[in-house]
Design goal:
Elements lengths: L4 E8 L3 E2 L10 H14 L5 E5 L5 E5 L1 H11 L4 E7 L3 H15 L6 H10 L5 H6 L37 H13 L10
Parallel strand pairs: 2-4, 3-5
Antiparallel strand pairs: 1-5, 3-4
Helix pairs in contact: 1-2
Amino acid sequence: MRDRIMELRRVKASELRGAPWNWRTHPERQRAAVAGSIEEIGFFDPLDVRVLPDGTLQIIDGHLRQDIIHADVGPDTLVPVNVTDLTEEEAKKANLTKDPLATLAESDAGRLDTLLGEVRILSTPLAAVLRRPSGASLAHPDETGPAPDETEKLVERYQILVTCRSEQEQAELLERFTAEGLTCRSLIS
């Protein structure tokens, strides 16, 4: 086995170049969920990059995360990257295989349900992506709203409940409202 990782480095988000051959597109639903993950957990998965002949770093995997950090947090924000010695052809192959290989994993429904029951997701877009096998949302499943932080002051909240005809309609409304800047979450009853 060849270890292709040369080093772990932190670089400004603005210094990373995207790969023109990256085949992935990122719908707003995914962008919002990834942004929610970064907001709640932080950065825990370095981007995979390679060194170009001119010394700049080109992203192999992590284009969306880099874009979110660059646009939402700031271009000078330091991002962790795994610097590899992959050639362009190898980088293309790595880019092609990472997501499809991950989707081959199967779930142990019992363990997954237990794990999902042990965490609370505050980000509505992230919770919409992470669902229990039973279909229940992870966003405060037994509460009517987010649990306030002990340091958070109580504020008045004005809420509405919209009953949807299907999970698809619920997801579409959640995505639309989130894109409009509203704070919302999904409920299943």
